[in-house]
Design goal:
Blueprint: H1 2-10, H2 14-25, H3 32-42, E1 48-51, H4 57-65, E2 71-73, H5 76-79, E3 90-93, H6 115-127, E4 130-132, H7 140-149, E5 156-160, H8 168-175, E6 180-184, H9 188-199, H10 208-232, H11 238-253, H12 257-262, H13 265-274, H14 277-290, H15 293-303, H16 308-314, H17 318-329, H18 333-342, H19 345-354, H20 357-370, H21 372-381, H22 396-403, H23 408-417, H24 419-428, H25 431-442, H26 446-454, H27 458-466, H28 470-483, H29 485-493, H30 497-506, H31 509-520, H32 524-532, H33 536-545, H34 548-558, H35 563-571, H36 575-584, H37 589-599, H38 604-612, H39 616-626, H40 632-645, H41 647-656, H42 659-666, H43 678-687, H44 691-702, H45 705-718
Parallel strand pairs: 1-3, 2-3, 4-5, 5-6
Helix pairs in contact: 3-4, 3-9, 10-11, 14-15, 14-17, 17-18, 17-20, 19-21, 20-21, 22-25, 25-28, 27-29, 28-29, 28-31, 31-32, 31-34, 34-37, 36-38, 37-40, 39-41, 40-41, 40-43, 43-44
Length: 719
């Protein structure tokens, strides 16, 4: 399973893998589909949810938007207490929860379900049928359990977009067991909507406004009572009582973000002035994102008087300073830099010296991005104690973090004084960690990293990097080549060619492209030789298994190694395969344009024909719904490609796109730079009877005739 494979590659430490998952899914918000789904659960239409996901999106939806509190089970030890017939819904996390280290995410870990989890799945299937949504069936644990329990003859409805893309184990389970069916769906979102439509008359909705008002009153009451208990029933000094009153008054005044929006301008300023710096920055950022960015900028400017922000920042740690200024930078970068530059260097230096190593790394990185010169200047003043330069008990990743928090002088001293210790760590730690260390640190200390790399034996490096998959191997060679091209050439000569060939013939097209293109800059002849080890038949098999954009990018890159061979392979691709991939994959405007622009270079007629046989309404719907995420420059760049490849598709995309997006394209100040592409756009405007848009484009073209003349001159020179 690729999922488990990549987690194993990322880290052998469960703690590190848990941190990665937490980083990826923390702060994710439930979509509208989850909200409808939560109401189906809340009203008893779904009672038990078994999930292999680690997130809390279903739980969050139920807690926030219904009056139902589900029971969550994510540990094997407590799973035995699940009551699958309970009136309260159960959310059962088969692979654990991202909050804990015992989640199951590597291939060995997902090979078997926890015993209690499997027992409860069996118990549930004695009373209920099973609907599967959003699960590909690629891990052994759940599939083994479902296959074993199928003898109980539970009903199975397996929902998916395309029966041809089902995992072989899923196909086997459905085809070889009774009462099992595949249900083709467009998406989880549409399925949630259709299920909701069936039961919409039976759904009870909570009164959100009344609930919010009740919670606000309760919150105010409990904090007020707590304030009284602290200040009146306990003997405290007057200064401490003032501090408690000040803090809790801010809490009592801090109504919801939406309540802030209802205040007038002066009331908002008064409210914000009472908050600490983190509260101010978050509130302004929320106003900027969700209400009105111009108003947030005005509030920011009105607050920035009489050293207001400077005084607030002096009260907090370096981490809070960096977090707050990072939020404020999104509102007004110049003002934020000015505030940071005005802070006292000595005060910031004191905060840096008293910060923990983890807080310091993130804080310094964020502040450097706002005002690099100031932070570099402060780091140069930093007096580092000798023990801070010792790295004996730290891994390479922590050493890299530390180096980025030191002045160049101290960092250099750390590298020189710990040369032997670093050599030992480099030999002992996984090659992936070595490459990450050298890549990160070489951006600051290139010569020192180069020296570390040059001290390593080529045979040692060759054996280590050949253990990796092709993607990591190509990254390693790219980093090594940057440090010392000649040494990397010598290293490559030691690589076992048979092992390389084996890797090439069993891996993906994208990975082959990454490795051979990295090799091209070091040893072109070797990259061409390895490319020749892959037969045309193997290439076609890999193309069949790849997505369209990967095919296009791989062909483009590999053609720079052997253009005649790759051109021949591209011409042999079945056009029906390309049509099938377009019809079964999702694209943004840029992705589809990018893929087709690369493919038509090899065979314009064939790939255009393939793109004209597609399900135009489907792709139009997909692209037009997301086109507002495409920048003006990208849109105008791909206009000729879309027009030439599939004019009908392009016309329908323009017709279905939001009017405000089309207006933003035409009002873009730099549109005249793409004048030579505008006639294609104009013809689509004519087809869609968009007269105002056509008139505006005609005006731009007429004012930029010199660009057409330059284009004609370039064509003459080319021919």
């Amino acid at each position: 399973m690729l999922y488990g494979f990549w987690f194993e590659r990322f880290s052998e430490s469960p703690k590190e893998r848990q941190k990665l998952i937490e980083h990826l899914i923390d702060f994710k918000e439930p979509s509208g589909a989850y909200l409808l789904f939560s109401h189906l659960i809340s009203n008893g239409k779904i009672t038990n949810v078994f999930t292999t996901n680690f997130d809390d999106l279903i739980y969050d939806s139920l807690i926030r938007y219904t009056e139902t509190k589900p029971k969550i089970y994510s540990h094997n030890e407590v799973a035995q207490y699940i009551n699958t017939l309970s009136k309260r819904p159960n959310i059962i996390k088969l692979h654990g929860d991202f909050l804990f280290e015992n989640i199951k995410n590597t291939k060995p870990e997902t090979g078997l379900l926890w015993s209690n989890m499997e027992n409860k799945l069996e118990e549930c299937l004695k009373s209920f049928d099973l609907i599967v949504v959003g699960y590909n069936g690629a891990d052994d644990s759940v599939m083994n359990a479902l296959a074993k329990l199928k003898s109980k003859d539970y009903g199975l409805l397996w929902c998916g977009r395309n029966p041809e893309n089902l995992n072989w184990r899923v196909k086997e389970l459905i085809n070889q067991t009774n009462n099992s069916y595949f249900i083709q769906i467009e998406s989880f979102e549409l399925l949630s909507m259709k299920l909701f439509e069936v039961y919409k008359d039976e759904i009870d909705y909570p009164d959100f406004r009344s609930n919010a008002e009740r919670k606000e009153k309760e919150f105010h009451q409990y904090i007020t009572e707590f304030k009284t208990e602290l200040t009146e029933n306990v003997k405290l000094e007057e200064k401490e009582i003032e501090s408690i009153n000040s803090t809790l008054d801010i809490v009592l005044d801090r109504n919801s973000f939406f309540r802030v929006a209802e205040l007038n301008h002066s009331e908002q300023l008064e409210f914000l002035r009472k908050l600490r710096i983190d509260g101010i920055s978050r509130t302004l950022k929320n106003i900027h994102t969700n209400i009105n960015w111009e108003h947030s900028k005005t509030l920011y400017a009105d607050l920035d008087k009489d050293d207001f922000f400077q005084n607030k920042l002096y009260e907090v740690s370096i981490q809070h300073i960096s977090n707050a200024l990072s939020n404020l930078r999104k509102i007004d970068a110049e003002r934020t830099k000015s505030i940071l530059d005005s802070l006292n260097d000595e005060n910031l230096l004191d905060k840096i010296n008293s910060a923990s190593s983890s807080d310091l790394y993130s804080g310094i990185s964020e502040l450097k991005s706002i005002s690099p010169k100031k932070i570099e200047s402060i780091l140069n003043k930093r007096k580092v104690s000798p023990e801070l330069l010792v790295i004996e008990n730290q891994d390479l990743r922590k050493v890299a973090f530390k180096l980025k928090t030191l002045s160049p002088k101290d960092g250099l001293e750390l590298l020189i004084s710990n040369n032997e210790a670093l050599q030992t760590k480099i030999k002992e730690e996984p090659i992936k960690e070595v490459v990450i260390f050298l890549e990160n640190v070489s951006s600051i200390y290139f010569k020192e990293c180069q020296a570390l790399f040059e001290q390593l034996e080529n045979s040692f490096l060759a054996d280590r990097i050949l253990e990796q998959n092709l993607t990591l191997l190509s990254i390693s060679l790219r980093v090594f080549n940057h440090l010392n091209r000649n040494k990397t050439k010598q290293l490559i000569k030691l690589l076992d060619k048979d092992k390389l060939q084996s890797k090439l013939t069993t891996t993906s097209l994208q990975a082959i492209k990454s490795l051979l293109f990295a090799l091209k800059d070091v040893d072109f002849q070797l990259s061409k030789y390895l490319l020749g080890l892959i037969t045309d038949e193997q290439f076609q098999e890999k193309i069949e298994k790849s997505d369209l954009l990967s095919i296009a990018e791989s062909l483009e890159y590999l053609s720079k190694i052997d253009n005649p061979r790759i051109s021949k392979i591209a011409k042999e691709i079945n056009s029906e395969l390309i049509t099938h991939k377009i019809d079964n994959e999702d694209f943004t405007f840029q992705q589809f344009g990018n893929a087709m622009s690369k493919l038509i270079v090899f065979d314009f007629d064939k790939f255009c024909l393939a793109a004209r046989e597609i399900d135009v309404p489907r792709l139009t719907d997909k692209i037009s719904k997301t086109i507002n995420k495409t920048g003006e420059q990208v849109f105008l760049h791909f206009v000729p490609i879309y027009f030439k490849v599939n004019r009908v598709l392009f016309s329908k995309i323009i017709k279905e796109s939001p009017q405000d997006y089309i207006d933003s394209i035409l009002k873009w100040p730099k549109i005249d730079l793409y004048t030579v592409n505008l006639p294609y756009l104009n013809r689509v405007f004519i087809e869609n009877k968009m007269d105002k848009e056509k008139e505006y484009v005609d005006y731009i073209i007429s004012n930029n005739q010199d660009k057409f003349r330059k284009k004609k001159r370039r064509k003459k020179k080319k021919h």
